[in-house]
Design goal:
Helix content: 25-40%
Shape: globular
Order of helices and strands: EHEEHHEEEHEEEEHEEEEHHHEHEEHHHH
Number of strands: 17
Structural class: alpha/beta
Distance between the termini: 31 Å
């Protein structure tokens, strides 16, 4: 466990009703980034995390140039740069029996792979001690009929009255259901992903490059993080047994080894010798990209960000960075409208800020979502015709593979 100083040991001793100005639901990457961005603008907030400690699932996160710009704005980039190599280039490797081949590719701008726990710690350590409250599971969010401000019902029976609620509570967001014009049904790709770390006690010999290997409908990605630690992920088609396999790290490893027949020996050894505690197998949920054009992202003084706003697959490695971008833009829009930091939060001011935030983010996350959707469908399908059609669309719309990393979310 870490960050004990941020724990409120007596959560059940809270008063029945507590007033707060700004409440952030979710203590993951997006929630902490939003709290830190607001803190940098001298705006207080309270983060509610349902777990008893801050934690990070998914092992690691790839951060490209746009994400590093956002982390620079939060003031944590210099610390995080010391934890991981900068990746200099990469290559695609097709392991097809008919025509094995390698295609090198360049990387423009900063590209590193971070431990999610390192990112969580770096942001949390920059926040005031009273900002984060763990062990607070949100059951519902609704508007008070009299004040028209949000009320948050917690699992321990407490009610938080807030002037502003920011939903950073992930794919299965409770807050998102409150703000959308119509409930968005999360869809699933046919592909699932396993992620993990492998530690080489005597050091590994891999160059500082991002390698993608592909055989049939199985893909392996490998990124060195330090001279001894390597992050990897495997995507394959989901099976009916995955719900059972995902609960047991040894079964996850066994299923990966079985699906990776024909991969190089060093790749198989990497999976075989991985840290079981780091292994995660998850299905991939997403919000259809067209919903991002039609749905609302706020209602009154309630707004969503991160996966609660734009859940996508991991195929273009931008989900985490996009969430941090959300935090920067959201905090900037609020600060511009709340010029007097000591003044009481006014509803119309907050609504104007959220409208500006939604306008700035909508097309950015639409194009990210559409790109991810197309890559996911290409991996899902067994049809050569469909795959060729998807590739043609991607060539027209996303000709620059590094295009998303050129985005600049601006300054705080």
């Amino acid at each position: 466990m870490f960050l004990k100083t941020f724990l409120f040991e007596n959560a059940k001793a809270m008063e029945r009703t507590i007033d707060n100005e700004i409440v952030i639901v979710g203590g993951g990457i997006c929630g902490l980034a939003t709290a830190l961005a607001l803190h940098r603008k001298k705006i207080k907030s309270l983060v509610l995390e349902k777990s008893d400690e801050l934690r990070a699932t998914g092992a690691a996160i790839i951060v490209q140039a746009n994400g590093w710009h956002a982390l620079d704005q939060l003031g944590v980039a210099s610390t995080l740069r010391q934890t991981a190599f900068q990746i200099q280039g990469g290559k695609f490797m097709s392991l097809s029996e008919d025509e094995p081949k390698e295609v090198p590719f360049g990387i423009n701008g900063e590209f590193r792979c971070l431990k999610r726990t390192d990112l969580i710690k770096a942001m949390a350590n920059c926040l005031p001690q009273e900002t984060i409250r763990t062990g607070c599971q949100v059951l519902s969010t609704e508007l008070d009929l009299v004040t028209k401000y949000p009320q948050i019902l917690l699992s321990n029976g407490s009610i938080l009255r807030a002037k502003v609620v920011i939903g950073c509570d992930g794919v299965n967001s409770i807050v998102a259901n409150m703000v959308t014009l119509h409930p968005t049904k999360l869809l699933r790709f046919s592909t699932c992903v396993a992620r993990g770390f492998t530690k080489y006690q005597n050091g590994h010999q891999f160059p500082s490059e991002f390698v993608m290997m592909s055989r049939g409908q199985v893909q392996l990605g490998r990124i060195p993080m330090t001279d001894k630690l390597v992050y990897w992920f495997v995507t394959r088609l989901s099976t009916f047994q995955d719900s059972i396999i995902s609960k047991d790290s040894a079964l996850i490893r066994q299923s990966l080894m079985e699906s990776m027949e024909g991969f190089p020996v060093h790749a198989m050894d990497m999976i075989r010798n991985c840290k079981l505690s780091s292994l995660h197998l998850t299905d991939l949920k997403y919000r259809p990209p067209w919903d991002l054009l039609l749905n609302r992202f706020s209602k009154g003084t309630i707004v969503v960000a991160g996966d609660a706003m734009h859940a996508t697959g991991p195929f273009v490695a931008q989900g985490g960075s996009a969430s941090i971008e959300d935090a920067i833009v959201l905090a900037r829009c609020l600060a511009e409208k709340m010029s007097n930091k000591d003044a009481e939060v006014e509803r119309n001011v907050v609504e104007e800020a959220f409208d500006k935030y939604a306008k700035e983010r909508r097309m950015r996350i639409f194009w990210l979502s559409l790109n991810t959707f197309l890559v996911g469908k290409r991996l899902d399908t067994k049809s050569g015709i469909v795959r060729s059609l998807v590739l043609a669309i991607m060539f027209v719309l996303f000709r620059d593979p590094d295009g998303h990393s050129h985005y600049n979310c601006g300054t705080l």
